[in-house]
Design goal:
It contains 12 helices and no strands. The protein has 345 residues and is an all-alpha fold. Helix 1 crosses helix 10 and helix 10 runs antiparallel to helix 11. This is UDP-rhamnose/UDP-galactose transporter 2.
Length: 345
């Protein structure tokens, strides 16, 4: 039993480490690919289509070689999930374009309370006071790190709301679909990736043209840009798989809270690799955020242990009234032989 817990803990850490490393790596690769100082590939939605296309190919190869098994999930649920996921991607891109960086960061931070409220509405999930307090500490810390100027306009506000709601719903749906159909994270991703890839590759160039005013057909691709697109797609496979894996193992709220560790990593790496400015305000925000994450991990663990104790107590204890009723039931109803239908004396 102890060895099983250790193995589970190691696999949890491995899944989370894969998500953090691949997410930070893809941000660094995309920064080089999409910045004007790099390869100026400003087609974010189409690039996401490439990501899902490569992920879909990996899934098909995995199923064909028997590495993973394909389980049945109704097509309408896959289509519904893909629409929500694509709305999340498109909404985030539009939010970044129409809003200031400060308001964009605030909208991302709002996902944690939104996920909490949606899980309470959809799954009647409740959170302890310690978990709520730790979430607030994380939000404050990351807010101090990242939020600068805040400018709001109506279009940007609508896009930000759409992005936050669809992203929160997508992350909750990943966990609920895995539980509902007893399907693994990679198997679910293998089913949704082809639908997302097809829709994003068709719509992506039009969305990118609206966002950047440039056509992807006019882009002169170089060998360096090709290599970075390939690197971005490779990292996206690990990022997508680990996201599904983490939400399946933890919860959408935990994924959001611990996900802000990536923000801290990105700020630090940006300072180390790209000479980005790292102020005292950034450093203080990072420290507050990390403290909040540590408190959150402790609070979730306490909540789990408390739930396990309550469950064990409810299973192993009977009230005096329950014992009395059981005794009365045995005395009044003698045992019967099922085959002969006679009372045993």
């Amino acid at each position: 039993m102890e060895s099983e817990k250790k193995a589970s803990a190691i696999s949890d850490v491995g899944a989370w480490a894969m998500n953090v490393i691949s997410s930070v790596g893809i941000i660094m690769a995309n920064k080089q690919l999409m910045s004007n100082h790099g390869y100026a590939f400003s087609f974010a939605t189409t690039l996401t289509g490439f990501h899902f296309a490569v992920t879909a190919i990996v899934g098909l190869v995995s199923n064909a070689t028997g590495y993973s098994a394909s389980k049945h999930v109704p097509l309408w649920e896959l289509l519904w999930f893909s629409v929500v996921a694509n709305m999340s991607i498109t909404g985030m891109n539009f939010s970044l374009m129409l809003n200031s960086v400060g308001f964009y960061q605030i909208s991302k931070l709002s996902m944690i309370p939104v996920v909490c409220v949606m899980e309470w509405i959809l799954h009647s999930k409740h959170y302890s006071r310690e978990v709520k307090m730790s979430v607030m500490v994380v939000v404050i810390g990351v807010g101090v790190c990242t939020v600068t100027d805040v400018k709001v306009n109506l279009k940007g506000f609508v896009c930000a709301c759409l992005a936050v709601l669809s992203t929160s719903l997508q992350q909750i749906s990943i966990g609920s679909l895995q539980k509902k159909y007893s399907i693994g994270s990679f198997e679910l991703l293998s089913k949704t990736a082809p639908i997302q890839a097809l829709s994003l590759l068709i719509l992506g160039p039009f969305i990118d043209y609206y966002l950047s005013g440039k056509l992807i057909t006019d882009y002169n691709i170089s060998t360096g840009a090709s290599l970075f697109i390939l690197l971005s797609c490779s990292l996206a496979v690990f990022c997508n798989v680990s996201q599904y894996l983490c939400i399946g193992r933890f919860s959408a709220v935990s994924f959001q809270v611990l996900g802000h560790m990536k923000t801290v990593c990105v700020l630090t790496l940006g300072w180390l690799l790209f000479d980005s400015e790292l102020t005292f305000k950034n450093i203080m925000g990072m420290i507050i955020a990390v403290v909040g994450m540590v408190i959150y991990s402790w609070a979730v663990e306490v909540e789990k242990q408390s739930s396990a104790k309550n469950l064990a107590h409810s299973k192993n204890s009977l009230t005096e009234e329950e014992i009395r009723l059981l005794k009365e039931g045995v005395e009044k109803n003698p045992l019967k032989d099922v085959e002969l239908g006679e009372a045993k004396g």
